[in-house]
Amino acid sequence: MSKHTRGPWSLADRGDYNDFEAESRVVFGTGKRLAVVHHHGDKEAEANANLIAAAPDLLDATKVLLSDHLDQHGERVCDCQPEPQNVGHLCSACRARAAIAKAEGRDL
Ligand SMILES: [Zn+2]
């Protein structure tokens, strides 16, 4: 079982918190602040805030997809070398495992 704050996480509206700049986005879950993305209205920072808020959903979806994949195809032996620098060259199942491990703070 994951130890992170249970999802869903969401973004507060801009300006909801007076202790941060007006354009900053506060990510919260289960009624508490989890992260603050500081920015001045730039699109990259807004995309980063959206990605952070989606993290629990992405983790859950990745676990479901990996489980469904293994149910359908079984555990296949692959030639992947699961090292952090090789993640872009792994098969889809190994990439999913790597992403889940990263999200859970584990080594590959
Ligand atoms: Zn693989």
Short description:
This protein has 108 residues and is α+β, with helices and mostly antiparallel strands. It has helices at residues 43-73, 92-103, and strands at residues 9-11, 25-29, 32-37.
Element layout with pairings:
Layout: E1 9-11, E2 25-29, E3 32-37, H1 43-73, H2 92-103
Antiparallel strand pairs: 1-2, 2-3
Helix pairs in contact: 1-2
Bound molecules: zinc ion.
Descriptive report:
The chain has 108 residues and is α+β, with helices and mostly antiparallel strands. The chain has one domain (9-103). Helices cover 40% and strands 13% of the residues. The chain is built from 2 helices and 3 strands. Strands 1-2-3 form a 3-stranded antiparallel sheet, with helices on one face. Helix 1 (43-73) packs across helix 2 (92-103). The radius of gyration is 17 Å and the shape is elongated. The model has no long low-confidence stretch (mean pLDDT 89). Zinc ion binds at residues 78, 80, 90-91, 93-94.
Q: Which terms summarize this structure?
A:
3 strands, 108 residues, binds zinc ion, 13% strand
The number of E-state strands comes to: 3
Overall 3D shape: elongated
Whole-number count of domains: 1
Largest sheet, order of strands side by side?
Answer: 1-2-3
Secondary-structure element order, as H and E? EEEHH
Give the radius of gyration. 17 Å
Low-confidence stretches: none
Q: Please outline the major beta sheet.
A: 3 strands, antiparallel
- Mean pLDDT equals 89
Ligands and ions found:
zinc ion
Decide which structural class fits the backbone. Answer: alpha+beta
End-to-end gap: 18 Å
